[in-house]
Amino acid sequence: MYAIRLGDDGAELRPLEPWHAEEFLAHLDRGRDFVNQYIPFGSRATDVTTAREALQRYADMRAADTASVHGLWLDGTLVGGVLTLNFDAANGSCEVGCWLEPAATGRGLVTRAMRVLIDWAVEQRGIHRVEWVAASGNTASIAVARRLGMTRDGVRRAAHLHHGVRHDLEVWSVLAPEWRARDRHPDPR
Amino acid sequence: MYAIRLGDDGAELRPLEPWHAEEFLAHLDRGRDFVNQYIPFGSRATDVTTAREALQRYADMRAADTASVHGLWLDGTLVGGVLTLNFDAANGSCEVGCWLEPAATGRGLVTRAMRVLIDWAVEQRGIHRVEWVAASGNTASIAVARRLGMTRDGVRRAAHLHHGVRHDLEVWSVLAPEWRARDRHPDPR
Amino acid sequence: MYAIRLGDDGAELRPLEPWHAEEFLAHLDRGRDFVNQYIPFGSRATDVTTAREALQRYADMRAADTASVHGLWLDGTLVGGVLTLNFDAANGSCEVGCWLEPAATGRGLVTRAMRVLIDWAVEQRGIHRVEWVAASGNTASIAVARRLGMTRDGVRRAAHLHHGVRHDLEVWSVLAPEWRARDRHPDPR
Amino acid sequence: MYAIRLGDDGAELRPLEPWHAEEFLAHLDRGRDFVNQYIPFGSRATDVTTAREALQRYADMRAADTASVHGLWLDGTLVGGVLTLNFDAANGSCEVGCWLEPAATGRGLVTRAMRVLIDWAVEQRGIHRVEWVAASGNTASIAVARRLGMTRDGVRRAAHLHHGVRHDLEVWSVLAPEWRARDRHPDPR
Amino acid sequence: MYAIRLGDDGAELRPLEPWHAEEFLAHLDRGRDFVNQYIPFGSRATDVTTAREALQRYADMRAADTASVHGLWLDGTLVGGVLTLNFDAANGSCEVGCWLEPAATGRGLVTRAMRVLIDWAVEQRGIHRVEWVAASGNTASIAVARRLGMTRDGVRRAAHLHHGVRHDLEVWSVLAPEWRARDRHPDPR
Amino acid sequence: MYAIRLGDDGAELRPLEPWHAEEFLAHLDRGRDFVNQYIPFGSRATDVTTAREALQRYADMRAADTASVHGLWLDGTLVGGVLTLNFDAANGSCEVGCWLEPAATGRGLVTRAMRVLIDWAVEQRGIHRVEWVAASGNTASIAVARRLGMTRDGVRRAAHLHHGVRHDLEVWSVLAPEWRARDRHPDPR
Fold first, then answer.
1. What is the 3-state secondary structure (H, E, C) of B145-184?
2. Does residue F4 lie within any of the structural domains?
3. Which residues of E touch D153 (CB under 8 A)?
4. Does the residue E4 lie in any domain?
5. ∠ CA C99-C104-C107 to the nearest 5 degrees?
6. Interface ipTM
7. Which pTM does this prediction carry?
8. 3-state secondary structure chain F
9. Ramachandran quadrant class, A4 (left: phi over 0; alpha: psi -120 to 50; beta: rest)
10. F152: domain range?
11. pLDDT for D84-103, tens place per residue?
């Protein structure tokens, strides 16, 4: 029942929950190869049952306040999403991430959603450090981190095994004071 | 981060979650006697730890898709809430309920919130029967059921023991077709 | 090892437990269509493994003191049973129910067993309200409620989805003082 | 609701369940020193909460079909009980045991109850070997084993630490064919 | 990473853990009929998944300090193992056991490993009674008990059902003072 | 029972397990302030019960193959330890860490233990990337990473809240080929 309008083009952010299993599966089936290029997101969700299990894992993490997943709907179609991971309110840190099906790229959907998500983490939940992790070759993902005003903290060499290949993982972050300063002087994009 | 405006008077509906424990406790402390007149809602939440446990039980039920709890904020202060209980998507049925602190009564907050909640249950989740249960003496609660266009199904005699007294429980309900018809011809209130 | 004679016709009431799985399955196979006319009782128990799982669910609820299931044996053959559900000793309330295979109907088996079960609930466990729930079309079940001296509390409209059809559920009940009064002045049946 | 008369002196065997916590505690308080002479039975049950926990552990084992506990009532007072332990239907073996408060000794209560329990284990549940374990110094317990027609299998030296002292444990047993033969030619006691 | 040399013939004792599943399976496949002559050890481990599950059960018991399993490697090949069972530090008692594939017999591997294991149990963990259980027909196993200086406590008649046949189980034991005395005056073997 | 000699000075590496609770507590009590300067290791272990709980958490993670903890004993006294964390055999990555009480510093104990641990991770468990994380101010810890031939991957800014202060976390790593190359050309230390 909750939804956040992300602009005038029909883009909305909503909680993504186990009862969306069929919609989630249809979305994955449209974007599976693209989504799984660098990350295994949703790769175990290959039918309605496993799609529900994937969403249930997020629902359980949300109940434990360690993660949350939010879908991006465009004109009523689920086309991707953003999420928090390793959410640790006591330590004031979390990771954020995203995924999109190909048809939804190029519109700044993730950047718009991420601003809402990071605002909430920083202002409502007291998160001090928001982290972004991306395979070094995933230039689109790294571009989002840069667009969000993040700083590159380093490269965890060979940290991720995906489809039999070892990938370096870039670690980017934005701290609460940086995020707030940027809010006052937004970049022209 | 999600919020639904319920009107122009600063009333909002938001997910109520374990991290709201301190706010939830302060709210209960303002309204405990009033809230617990007919129902034990929040009665075990007497400090921050037990307030968090109470909200955690709802968070776990939400993860299991059997209940959900939503807070009512008035000008930024938590003043009550609405909830689903015994949510059974396969059977197409659920119960709904509410609570308010005294200062927030008389504004139709619950009725407004309940319309959003029932709309979601009926239109998004396929619920066919929405049930309302209230002690026979709880005239304020029964008035809400009537205002929502519900029908009285019966009285479960002596079904609820509260503060050492047995209460009859009135059962009211609205079915999906009735809810939709009412949407097209809303009552003048 | 426990058994309660219900009369001179070889009818006995005994705890029905997971180790009865084969006997329970054979009984269900004789009465499945009849038993499942209005309720899904035992419908998931289609082989010895699932029959044991069904009985295990009751065994777990019995350990939690929230339900109990008792078989009816006629001349050594399991032909049906009675059960408590939503047993809530703190609130002083429970639901009771029953099922029979066709060959065992017409002998008052359920009524006899139910008297034993309700006596125990009321006199041993302090239950104040015993509830009976039946689909409106299930005249046989409703006749038992009437025979037990219960009162119709109301009709939960469209509350039960069974085999794709919505059924109204009648709610009947007997309260402890009524039950005890009836014991002193039993009806002539 | 289940009860088995053990004779004409008002002795009955009934399932002992968590809701008997207060009655169980009162009984233990009358017999604690006597009962705990050789075994720790009930020693952790020192108030209603811990008494309920002790009975809950048995309830959980009963649900798992690995143990069961049955109270002995004499003229309506709980005075002791018998139990199965390490119940293993697949292997056809179990242990049985007992406890009594002092006022209930000398009446053969345990022997009578044990005959019912072993009959059930052997004839209903297919147990081939029923084992009895007693500290070597516990002559009363060993006398029961002998009275039940059991054979001494051996002595597990120093196997039990109780109140800071190591006790040898005698192991006695009766096998199904022996039990049945004894039924046909009962001893004169 | 831990390993204990058991002599100059390349025999080593190491923790056997879930990640050894493939090696464990290959070993079982070489010795299954021999190992399962009297005991069901590893009989459910018939592919890598079930082999890992079998080792996981031991890993969980080790975490609970109720059992431990240690592999015997001969020149880098897993050929058998020793284990503790029913480990009860509070009571000062445990059971020990072993298994070997045929090619590894006749070298005293188990006896050597068992001395290390019992030394640890007695001297590090305060175990007073170490028990050995073997089917009466398992002369090789009983010979090890004798070689370890154990005493026969008795015979639990018909206590073990294996492959449809009931076996008597011999119970042997060694107590801490006996074990220490033997250390000072080792037998000539 | 397992132990690995780390040199001629009486230093040994052994599994650290829940039954070491008293020894672990005494060790922490000698070094608590020093150990907790940059990390919360053992800070919740303030009596025997909480010390056992701390070790039990590691035991459970070890059973799940996600972590392991190993104590360093010097002449029979527990003086510190090394551990694996976030052990992920499927991904080929893990973190390693350490702690020491003050009296045990300056002897290269951790470096020696770490070589054994990393050798095992890389050669036995197929770990490709071994990570070391240290607060930027923890020069002693960073010196160990350097001594182990690790490379600094970056600095996760403000990632760790400890004693109310935010610390940058340096991330160092060594990859399997680097580790093996270093084995062939060890540094002169």
1. HHHCCCEEEEEEEEEEEECCEEEEEEEEEEEHHHHHHHHH
2. no
3. 154-157
4. no
5. 105
6. 0.94
7. 0.94
8. CCCEECCCCCEEEEECCHHHHHHHHHHHHHHHHHHCCCCCCCCCCCCHHHHHHHHHHHHHHHHCCCCEEEEEEECCEEEEEEEEEEEECCCCEEEEEEEECHHHCCCCHHHHHHHHHHHHHHHHCCCCEEEEEEECCCHHHHHHHHHCCCEEEEEEEEEEEECCEEEEEEEEEEEHHHHHHHHHCCCCC
9. beta
10. 9-184
11. 999 999 999 999 999 999 99
Q: Which spans in D36-169 are helix H?
A: 48-63, 109-119, 139-147
Q: Do A157 and F151 touch (CB under 8 A)?
A: yes
Number of domains in chain A: 1
Residue F189: inside a domain: no
Domain containing C177 — which CATH number?
3.40.630.30
F6-59 pLDDT per residue, tens: 999 999 999 999 999 999 999 999 999 999 999 899 999 999 999 999 999 999
Residues from chain F that touch E73, judged by Cβ atoms under 8 A, are: none
- Binding partners of E (≥3 Cβ pairs within 8 A): D, F
CB distance F67 to F57 below 8 Å = no
Chain-centroid distance of CA D48 in Å reads: 22
Instruction: Give F-chain residues touching A160 at CB under 8 angstroms.
Output: 91
Alpha helices in C6-47 (DSSP H): 21-35
| Helices vs. strands in chain C: H and E counts, helices first | 5, 8
- Cα nearest neighbour of E150 on chain D: D157
In a domain, F1, yes or no: no
| The two three-digit tokens of residue A142, written as one number | 């790294």
Interface of B with A (CB under 8 A): 1-4, 15, 17-19, 56, 59-60, 62-63, 65, 89, 116-117, 119-120, 124-125
Contacts of B48 in chain A (CB under 8 A): none
F185/B159: higher pLDDT: B159
Q: Provide the pLDDT for residue D189.
A: 47
Q: Which of A1, A65, A117 sits opposite B116 (nearest CB)?
A: A1
Q: Is the pLDDT of residue A185 over 90?
A: no
In this structure, the strands spanning F165-175 and D165-175 are unpaired
